[in-house]
């Protein structure tokens, strides 16, 4: 294994497993809906992120860098959407975990979130800028990113599923949802304000 490939794998692992808006939503979804229901949004989010790496490698990243208004519009759309999701999470903070009645995060919503998530675009630009080379073509970077991102995001879903029994206590559930809503807001606004 070449050093550049190992460096890319470590970068992809760190960026995929670290807390971010999508991982936090998958955690909450896993707690409310279970692992099976979390698979579609999880796979859609990972596929969207890998597609963004591929599109940036094909030149979309350069086009975005030349149009700062487009970057700002995407960033603000992402922050507003994430703020709305955090508000929904906060409003339902004390409601008991009900897998049937709660509205699940859909695959299209999870993929769309990646499209407007500034963290994903900056990660994709970094991947292409640092790791793309003749020995590591763009399609290979995208595919490897996808294969690394899926188990990393699955860990977040499993953390949510594993917390379900602990969250049966109303006080713990309230604390959990309020904390996730706050973390979601912080991660969304930190990306735009930085």
Automatic annotation (TrEMBL):
Pfam families: LysE. The chain crosses the membrane at residues 6-27, 39-61, 73-90, 111-133, 139-161, 173-192. The keyword Transmembrane helix applies. It is a multi-pass membrane protein. Signal peptide: none annotated. PANTHER family: ARGININE EXPORTER PROTEIN ARGO, ARGININE EXPORTER PROTEIN ARGO-RELATED. This is LysE family translocator.
